[in-house]
Amino acid sequence: MSEEKSERHVLAVLVDNEAGVLARVVGLFSGRGYNIESLTVAEVDHAEHTSRITVATSGTPMVIAQIKAQLERLVPVHKVVDLTVQAPSVEREMALVKVAGTGEKRVEALRLSDAFRARVIDTTHTSFIFEVTGTPEKIDAFVGLMRGLGLVDVTRTGVVSIARGPEAM
Amino acid sequence: MAAREMTGAEIVVKALIDQGVEVIFGYPGGAVLPIYDALFKQNDIEHILVRHEQGAVHAAEGYARSTGKPGVVLVTSGPGATNAVTGLTDALMDSIPLVCLTGQVATHLIGTDAFQECDTVGITRPCTKHNWLVNSADELARVMHESFHVATHGRPGPVVIDIPKNVQFQTAEYRTPAQVSHKTYRPQVKGDMSAINRAVDLIAAAKKPVFYTGGGVINSGPMASQLLRQFVKLTGYPITSTLMGLGAYPAADPQWLGMLGMHGTYEANNAMHDSDLIICVGARFDDRVTGRLDAFAPHSKKIHIDIDASSINKNVHVDVPIIGDCAHVLEDMIRVWKSKVSQPDKSALSTWWKQIETWRGRKSLAYVKSDTSIKPQYAVERLYELTKDRKTFITTEVGQHQMWAAQHYHFEEPNRWMTSGGLGTMGYGLPAAIGTQVAHRDALVIDIAGEASILMNMQEMSTAVQFMLPVKIFILNNEYMGMVRQWQELLHGGRYSHSYSEALPDFVKLAEAYGGHGIRATHPDELDAKIMEMIETPGPVIFDCVVEKMENCFPMIPSGAAHNEMILGDDPEGATVTEAGKMLV
């Protein structure tokens, strides 16, 4: 068991949007010692009061199966899909990245942002806020490049993911 | 015309009545006064006033486990709720259906650190199957009925409903159970037929099979025990059980190997270790059962029937998982077995039984008898002999006495054995006995206790006296926290750090102080007569059975060892605890 390699999986969890449901999910992870790499949550169906939680986690295949089973056991959880194994899926994350500077560095930051299709959503004479969307790796790369160009602040949404093809989760 | 509006408190009581609740265990306080007022005005539900909220929850557990019905608890906010936490955790670990109602400060005071406020749903979230904070009386009837559904369906467990005091005064329309159904919670009870087919083929082909059964069989109901007996008889295979599953299969039957695990029998553990097929029914491969995981039943295939999918492949990889209720799955298995005209491999089975008989011949539960002092095993044996022909229910506390009870008291029926397995809660036994006695007024209910454990919820003796519940507390008094002392002897060089029970009360006088009857036995010759005196006493009894102080509980699989590396009573040097094993509990 212990020789099995740890893998990253992205799980989509459809839950009742009721008080405490996020605490149940997060508490399950912390209480049982599972890892959360990122977590996003928002209501997806207002009429049905359902929210979708996307959680990126890591563990051996046995641990991942256990996480899925434990999540399914929670009473307000409707459905859990392991998007990493059950379907080819797409993943996106958004970041807002604040870069401060003047002169050559400022120009270079703007030039690189173009290569990443990042949008400038706020600017002053000494700063930019970039909005960048992509896979977590792309955002890592962009933030890494900005580090040498006056990066002062960054906020990320965490990944959201959805299966390819015509079916719902 | 709209139905008559009721107050929240009245809705609570009406919902309990409609759910068939006959008795609740509780303790009043400021935040539940309206509910207590509603209880005052009715005669359908009996209320058992405990002396500590932990006692209320364990009593409800005893009630639930001995009847198969959910136990109901009513406590106030703040300390009422926090005192219930140990019992709720105990019920979660042992899958006991409970509905626990807690009072809460008024909704406008929540979050202000009001008097006797605590975040009850936050605190109880990880120790309940589900919980609710009811913000309005309009939700109350629905939540009450849903809570019984959740507590009793799927893998049973405790639920908490936190009810703010102003909600208890608000008025709303009542809804009956028939008008409420849970939106989504529908656990699977029927097993997958293709998995059942594969399982039956494996069972028929096995050469060294063993049934390993657990509390899930008891929880599934009496039908599951009947079907288990039928299937085990059809196959002729040996059967063992966890602590929680005792009684599902009759101990007097020759196919019964006794309990398995850390203090299980030599034959049960060796049969598991050498088996080529383990048929796990409603058990969860817990660490007390498996011992060292990488050496657990190394040559066996495993079939696992469990209603909780998260129990499958959690600790041990299994070959054929079957998610479903034990009774449903066993029924299907028996049908498939018969339709395939399956036959066990007679010659392999006879070789297997010969091997098991050799292990059985080792008599691993034997102990050295004494003419001068009462051996704890002897005390349990005599208790068994003198009570087995009555309608007897046994509860226990936690420690050596619990294991001796499991080893030397033999159960023929399910629901007769109430013990704290998963959480291992000292102080469980007396309140559990009270809850059991409430459900079975004419039965003999005995709490086999230790002198340390019993003091953890001793105050409940007062409850027993008040409600004329004739529970018998049979204390195996060795003046030590015996299991702690045993581990200190085996693992810590005999340095008995704080495990001696100094300054014990005089239990006979203590019984009298509570208004019960006290008995003390110190010599084996007087034991039988005194046990008979206990049985024949009409009220609650504390029996102080003064036993051999340094007796250890064997056989034992030391922590970190495998099933075939047991320490036996007559060969205590037989196995040693490794450094890695010392890290384990």
Automatic annotation (TrEMBL), chain A:
Protein name in UniProt: Acetolactate synthase small subunit
PANTHER family reported in the protein's UniProt record: ACETOLACTATE SYNTHASE SMALL SUBUNIT, ACETOLACTATE SYNTHASE SMALL SUBUNIT 1, CHLOROPLASTIC
Function noted in UniProt: Catalyzes the conversion of 2 pyruvate molecules into acetolactate in the first common step of the biosynthetic pathway of the branched-amino acids such as leucine, isoleucine, and valine.
Pfam family, one: ACT_AHAS_ss
Subunit relationships: Dimer of large and small chains.
Similarity comment: Belongs to the acetolactate synthase small subunit family.
InterPro entries: Acetalactate_synth_ssu, Acetolactate_synth/TF_NikR_C, Acetolactate_synth_ssu_C, ACT-like_dom_sf, ACT_dom, AHAS_ACT, AHAS_small-like_ACT
Database matches in PROSITE patterns: ACT
E.C. number: 2.2.1.6
From TrEMBL, chain B:
Family assignment from sequence similarity: Belongs to the TPP enzyme family.
Record keyword Transmembrane helix present: no
Source organism of the structure: Tepidicaulis marinus
Swiss-Prot/TrEMBL catalytic activity: 2 pyruvate + H(+) = (2S)-2-acetolactate + CO2
Thiamine pyrophosphate enzyme central domain residues: 196-332
Class of the enzyme per the UniProt entry, highest EC level: transferase
Lineage of source species: Bacteria, Pseudomonadati, Pseudomonadota, Alphaproteobacteria, Hyphomicrobiales
CDD domains: TPP_AHAS (cd02015), TPP_PYR_POX_like (cd07035)
GO annotations of cellular component type: acetolactate synthase complex
Protein name per the record: Acetolactate synthase
Molecular function GO terms recorded: acetolactate synthase activity; flavin adenine dinucleotide binding; magnesium ion binding; thiamine pyrophosphate binding
